[in-house]
Amino acid sequence: MGGSLPRSVDDLPLLPDLVAPQAWSADLVAASDGLFERGVRVLRDGEGGLLVIGDAVMRALAQDPAVGGTPVEFLTGRAGDRVRRATGAAPPSGAAAFDAFLRNQVFTMNAALHVAVRRVVARHLVPRAVLGMAGHAERVLVGVLDEVTRVGGVVDLERDVAGPYVTRFWTDQLGVPAGAALRVQQLVHEMNRMFLFAPTLEDRARVLAATEEYLELVGRTVAMAWERGDNALLGHLARGLDGIDLPGAPPDLGALVAANFFDGFHTVAVAVANAARCLLADAPAAERVRRAPSLVAAAFTEGARLTAPLMLTTRMALGDVEHAGLRIPAGTPITMAWIAANRDPEAYDEPGGYRLDRPPRLGTTFGGGARICPGRGATRMLGEVALRALTATSVQVRLESPQPGWVPGSAIRRHPAIPVVVRRVAAA
């Protein structure tokens, strides 16, 4: 596109004219790489909105206060439209629980509610608080690794290691009984279908059913833990929620936790598994980390940059927006392809390479602007604990499949499977 942007969004290129829809849905990372080669950084998405893939323009728009959360009605309407396009049929009814799930997330809220609820959630995920949780994360992971090594054989790195590790960590923090942790993991895996670009009627029905059970399970168990009065995190969250006197606030503690810790249960597990696979697949890098554990932070950052689990989200122009001469009318949906910006050659040297020595740079793995993920510090801590444990001299992890590929047609960047063998190694 060159250095300057056109003044009207109508002058921007159209995604379907540059990339076949099936190629985009199959692998938007590869498709974005092709757009970068053509000098494209922002374009129309073919659905009445904008698609942003470039690092500089994405950061600028993410920081613009006029680019805010997307109304739930828009998100549910677009989800229904995708079912209709994929199947030719109307989506199943009974989406009340799913609507409530979206409505209670800080990501869909706008000021002043977004600021107030985000403050309640983020206050307990600051670096000092996260550092205090690291010891518990290590103990949980030791237990998970003990289980998989005791069973032996091939296990899946996401399903059998990262998933249980992350889910148990957060259910422990929130006072959810151990017996419910496995069911939470199963339910969020089912809810993962919400990210499909072309869901079937069955996909939609399973998302709705899983969401309803998930909200009930988390809400009930969190309420029980709160009634016991011995969970400091829930106490802080409850007091913060009580202080919000704004329309649309989560109706109770369970709703707040279920909606805003979903990514902690689900997306973080994908991030941990992806980053671990990136490192384990690069034998020289894995050996460097094994010999110098101080490189764990760089290994997680680089793996998360290349394989950010939530590849894109949609925001909305709350008012008229202008950036570098481009005028974006109020009400325009703006899809931010975060993983694409992480690979923009204008921002990264050798953007597709895995380099532990890459100069530190704030990527877009966790979004950007005032709506950057409030749990990014906890995600990083959990990822670094995992990489440190999986490259320890007392553990051997062997990848069984060098090229498992990616799940196509989803906004989540994850492997269909990451088969590994994990075993303990006796001290020399």
Automatic annotation (TrEMBL):
Gene3D superfamilies: Cytochrome P450. The keyword Transcription regulation does not apply. The keyword Iron applies. It holds the Pfam family p450. Keywords: Heme, Iron, Metal-binding, Monooxygenase, Oxidoreductase. It comes from the Bacteria. InterPro entries: Cyt_P450, Cyt_P450_CS, Cyt_P450_sf. Belongs to the cytochrome P450 family. PANTHER family: CYTOCHROME P450 YJIB-RELATED, P450, PUTATIVE (EUROFUNG)-RELATED. This is Cytochrome P450. It comes from Pseudonocardia humida.
